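Take a look at my tokenised protein here and describe the backbone shape.
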Amino acid sequence: MVKSNASASPACTSRVASSGKRWHLLCPYDVDSLDDQVIEAAKHSHPFIAGDRGVAEEATHTHPHPHPPEMTDPLSGALPPPRAPTHELTFTEADLVTLRHTLKDWSMGEGLGSDGVQELVLAVNELATNSVRYGGGEGQLILWREHDTLICEIRDAGHIEDPLIGRARPTPDQHSGRGLWLVHELCDLVQIRSSAAGTTIRVHMRRAASARASGRS
């Protein structure tokens, strides 16, 4: 578990609205299931770490910005580039069926279990549909795998301004906002970056232990 200042970690601040006042955010990380590079990145971006005993201590890694400037937009910035070969697909509304089939075949080929395939296809279809409706009528899907995690990224021309979008459970009478909430429920990690230039949403889903044990590379 790590403790963050207001703008220490883009992954955390993308989920919290900035009030203009200083505040602290406690960020839980599952060290048993997350990839080592995710935990290492968290150690580099948070000034304090709390272990099993709950005692906070200064991180062993030096933060690149000990006193980072306040972020004016929690969704600003760029995600790190893919660290593996990618598959890319540009889509419009007419291509959504092809997109679902392509994603299903790719995720099955990468060793994702049947339940995971269904959940990933559902989540990415929600994002692609939002791109068609709100992101200029088209978008780009990028697929790749890093270690045991399948990663899907949707890019479009839309602009998301609510840093907490998809975090709150929709009310029964709410007619919009259910798609991103569902994406957060289905995926292991959801990262959002957005500005007037466009939106990037990256979702992560880990392969099942059985697939990892089979030795698929």
